[in-house]
Amino acid sequence: MRGRASSLFLTGTALLTMASAAAAQEATPPTDAQSGQASAQDIVVTGTRIVRDGYTAPTPVTVASTEELVKATPSNIPDALNKLPQFQNSSSPSRSSMNFANTAAHGNVLNLRGVGPLRTLILFDGQRVAPTTYLGTVDVNVIPNLLIQRVDVVTGGASAAYGSDAVSGVVNFVLDKKFTGLTGVAQGSTSQRGDNQGYRFGIAGGFDFGGDRGHLLLSAETFKNNGMLRSDRKLGRGAYSYVGSTVGCTNPNAAADPTACSPGGTLNPYMIASGVTLSAASEYGKITSGPFTNYRFDANGALVPFSNGTATGSPGYFVGGDGYAISPDTQAVAPLHTYQAFGRASWDFTPDVTGYVQGSFSRSDLSYTSLANSLVPPTAATLYSGNPYLPAELQAAFSPTSQSITLARYGANSPRPHTTERTDYWMVNAGFEGTLADKWKWNVAFNHGDSNFSVAQEGVWDWQHFYAATDAVRNGSGQTVCRASLSADPTIAARYANCQPFNLLATGDAYASQPGYDYVVGTSRYRARIWQNALSASIQGALFDLPAGPVDVALGAEYRRQSLRLTSNANPADLDTTAERSAYFAGLRGVPSSVYHYWLTNVGEASGDLSVKEVFGELAVPLLKDQPFAQELSLNAAGRYTDYSTSGSVKTWKLGATWKPISDLLLRGSVSRDIRAPNLFELFAGDQSAISLLVDPVSGITANVPQVTGGNPDLKPEKADTLTFGAVITPSFLPGLSLSVDYYRIKIKDAIGTLSLTQIVNNCSQSGGTAPECALVTRDTPTSFPSQIRVAPANIAFLETSGIDFDASYRTELAGGNLGLRLYASYLDTYQTQQSSTAPVLEYAGTSTISSTPEGRPRWRGTLSVNYEIGRVGVFLNQQLIGKVKLGIPGGLENGLGQTIGAVDYTDMTLSYRLPVANGHVEFFGTVNNLFDKDPPLIPGTIPGVNIATNFALYDTVGRAFTGGIRFKF
Questions:
Q1: Please, are residues 379 and 602 in contact by the beta-carbon 8 Å criterion?
Q2: Given 561, 571, 685, 901, which is the most exposed site by the fewest CB atoms within 10 A?
Q3: Three-class SS of 312-335
Q4: Can you say whether the dihedral through the CA atoms of 748, 752, 758, 764 is positive or negative?
Q5: Which of 452, 471, 458, 619 is nearest to 540 (CA)?
Q6: Residue 764: is it exposed, middle or buried by C-beta count within 10 angstroms (0-12/13-18/19+)?
Q7: What are the beta bridge partners of residue 662?
Q8: Residues 11-55: pLDDT tens digits?
Q9: pLDDT, tens digit, 9 for 90 and up, residues 765-774
Q10: What are 835-859's pLDDT values in tens digits?
């Protein structure tokens, strides 16, 4: 525990010590209210099918109350959870890249342990939440907030108890089913700089009826945040990038070190540059072939020589010059608007039988401005001789052997494509529960989840229209028309009868205001419906008594069926053969082989179903009780047999033990086999298209390369072996203090993974063209830049992570008020991955990955909260620590990286005033997040302007922000 990275843990320990000392000096016994607070951790929590106290369960469980979470982060519960150290690299509107609309990864998606959101099981009051996106993830924005009592986070494998996906653990949003009264919230928020403005309104009530035999819960709430652009922050405007530092690098020993002169190679270390541009295109158009090659059009439409700018050691990257830079007028925080409605009714049919039905509807709207339309190789535009929009000097330069130019233009002066994502989610749950002979508890439940996820990206190039409209000619009357409309083929002429010619060389307002612009842009749409039906039944109780207590057992069975239907108006599979492409682009010239329907967003269709049958059992055996050095000793065992219609059967199990040698100390441990089954999209996805920047070692060219991904119906479940052990200390000499320390280790084999584009290309290149990856790379010639790279998931990867979690809480009286302290801290010992059996094992612990989608895994993370209430006034401070990280590209070239970014801490503060009203209270509150307005560290990627230049997965990009409002409860 050396250095600043452990400062939070040490500070928390010091505060706990000082508070306990002060409490001891005052020697004031806790009141009944305080006793209730002190025992707030003694809650029945998630983690086992057999009822266990949260601090005595064999598997570690973190219990976070809603009250604590909203004081730290009043926006919503998911945002607050993401400040806990157990969650790493989660996705949220402020922690995602909004460049592309071809993936469903922009909601609030929790990532426990950082091993991937698909390996985190989400429950709503103990029931599995159906996926909200076609990727199989759950956007937890769909879960209503106001009636959530607490969130239980099981930080160990739990597949034997809950089934597939509980590899890293379980996040259970626990409903306050017994709430009676009325509660609500009204608040507004803004950043210090006037952006990220938002509001939250909500009201909820709980009512008894039918002579207290029935209970009704109702809630409705809405949340909105207007977001911000990258250009709203300094780090988003500088066009920062890591580039090679050796200009004109020559490699004297290419055979022994073939990547020595690549950026980050041994002879070409990385450095940070600002004002970086890419020479592949220019703002108003660069001619890359034909007459006037390496000339560009300026803002007035004149032809001038193209200036590269100051060279760097990265091919195609320059400082200054006439190249293009990705516009910063794209989203850093995506605007989000959510609506949630919930209702639940229960009825006691007899003292031993209760029936219930509950349902919720949620809508989540996300909107963002994404990358501008561009014409960057390999999707540049060809303009032919005779095009009326060509300047006279260029037309005169054509010859019989040179009849066209290729134009590469970044989308200057054009409206940015705008994307809207909507998730409509319905969840219905009904069932019966009861008791038998006062010793057995049973339940039968039906659960239905239905998600409609739709995406529309407006204003994006429609390639069929684009290549028709840019190929302009004069007709017999001297009018400028689309060449295809004059086709001798009546079918083609009819198809383009309404074609509006497009002047690609226009500048200023004339560019987007011409009729042809509306013709060449369109809307790429796709829609996914995912629904799940589940039936479950279980019973638990005491089989018999041993001297140490009853032997408890839980037995149950579940049946689950999921379906996915993904439709698209830009399905790449419609154009994956030469015949299909020839028919679709018939009558058009200059269409690159890499284009599909639209620029960037071409999502393939998917359709599939799976069913799951499961039986499970769990046994708790007390061995000793109230014996010397064994006040409690018990064993826990669980097993589950699962049969998937898609991948066959699999078994999961767990063994756990707890030992309480003295009243102040509990030791616990567990080992388990856990699984994650492939989801419907991984199994049945059609071809999806995207682009990525590639530094190609074969051609030496740096450019965007089209990539195609698809599903794999032969995938099998991942298997994970999980080990946890630790201790819980509850000293009798200091009531109200609890401290737990737990070690965890997760090993995942047969993990579903894909090789990155760089790995595929480099593996092929380094093998001399003999590696299996070479079949995934398409080149027009052996030495040309790839025209396409195919990627598919497979059970090829391995992942291992281990670390230590700390959880401490203390509540007492102090100076006439109530003091509460809570410390969450986590130390990451190792995080290793291996993408395939032939790939190296890579270590990510303590690293901030340099990437267009950055990830960060500091060894130390933690949050410390201090809550003090005296009379009607409350003061809450929350300190978040993000430990130091080393910059790197594990598995890539890293020369020039390796710098250490020191630990960063953020302070949040809430002041509140509680006014008693009638039988309840009204609380006025104000919260300042990032109280000291700390800027994020400068950490650019390797593509200038593709993101705000920091690791947004780790650091706050908004700055100081304010929230004020009222909460009430009657």
A1: no
A2: 561
A3: CCCCCEEECCCEECCCCCCEEECC
A4: positive
A5: 619
A6: buried
A7: 665
A8: 454 455 444 444 444 433 333 333 333 333 334 456 677 764 433
A9: 888 888 778 8
A10: 887 788 999 999 999 988 899 999 9
